[in-house]
User: Which sequence fits this backbone?
């Protein structure tokens, strides 16, 4: 429970840097209690880059403002570092600090606490950070809708938009993507790789394996570069039932968004990553 009990208590939000396109959208529901009254209210606001903004302003004298619900939506086109804090007469107390990927949402609910929801609407599991990192607690990102690559230039790699997660510089991440995909024809091959919106692939190592024929696959071991392999294979096992699996570790050199990528071997011949494909990940340090 969060209670603003003094006329100098303010619940605030601030970003770690300036947005690229859009400020984050915030809504707070609260209720004011006195000895004999109860009044419900809400605050709707946007962030203001690195300037503090009130999610809920201080209550009146002899009033307790109880925070029931907070929603903070990243409407920007890049990651946002979000800090929610209590300003108690000028002294700052951090209540929650997270990195939100674009279209992710930070939510507080009385009795539950702070939670982060992925762009698909699924709850993101907490990952223990610090010297004693958790050995369990994978987070699953599920692809919410089909993503098609039928570029007019053969072998042009593109994002599997929605199969991504936020990463922090110098942290280690384990990942495994299991992707169900279709092909316009069995004579259309594909390739599957990874990338990050910032930094380099200095500490990247993963294996990829995906359909080739009904009895064989293409396997690439110990890949250590973004958007690799450079060439697509020549066929797909089926037009309707193919699978790609990518598994490995990554340590980003800069904070950004890690994302799965793919290409079609044949120009204007669609490879479609299907809704329900999943990306598992966990920060390990």
Assistant:
């Amino acid at each position: 429970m969060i209670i603003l009990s003094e006329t100098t208590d303010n619940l605030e939000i601030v970003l770690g840097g300036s947005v690229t396109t859009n400020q984050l959208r915030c809504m707070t529901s609260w209720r004011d209690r006195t000895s004999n009254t109860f009044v419900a209210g809400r605050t709707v606001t946007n962030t203001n880059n690195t300037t503090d903004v009130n999610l809920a302003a201080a209550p009146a004298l002899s009033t307790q403002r109880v925070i029931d619900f907070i929603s903070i939506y990243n409407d920007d086109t890049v990651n946002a570092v979000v800090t929610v804090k209590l300003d108690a007469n000028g002294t700052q107390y951090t209540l929650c600090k997270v990195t939100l990927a674009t279209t992710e949402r930070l939510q507080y609910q009385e009795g539950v606490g702070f939670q982060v929801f992925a762009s698909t609407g699924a709850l993101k599991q907490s990952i223990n950070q610090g010297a004693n990192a958790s050995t369990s607690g994978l987070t699953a990102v599920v692809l919410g809708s089909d993503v098609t690559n039928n570029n007019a230039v053969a072998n042009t790699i593109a994002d599997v938009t929605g199969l991504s997660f936020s990463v922090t510089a110098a942290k280690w991440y384990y990942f495994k993507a299991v992707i169900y995909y279709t092909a316009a024809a069995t004579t259309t091959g594909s390739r599957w790789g990874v990338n990050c919106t910032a930094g380099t692939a200095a500490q990247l190592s993963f294996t990829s394996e995906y359909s080739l024929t009904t009895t064989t696959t293409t396997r690439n071991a110990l890949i250590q570069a973004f958007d690799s392999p450079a060439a697509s294979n020549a066929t797909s096992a089926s037009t309707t039932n193919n699978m790609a699996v990518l598994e490995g570790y990554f340590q980003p050199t800069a904070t950004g968004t890690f994302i799965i990528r793919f290409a079609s071997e044949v120009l204007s011949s669609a490879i479609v990553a299907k809704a329900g494909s999943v990306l598992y990940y966990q920060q390990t340090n």
Notes: The radius of gyration is 23 Å. The CA atoms of residues 186 and 238 lie 6 Å apart. The chain has a mean pLDDT of 92. The chain has no helices and 22 strands.
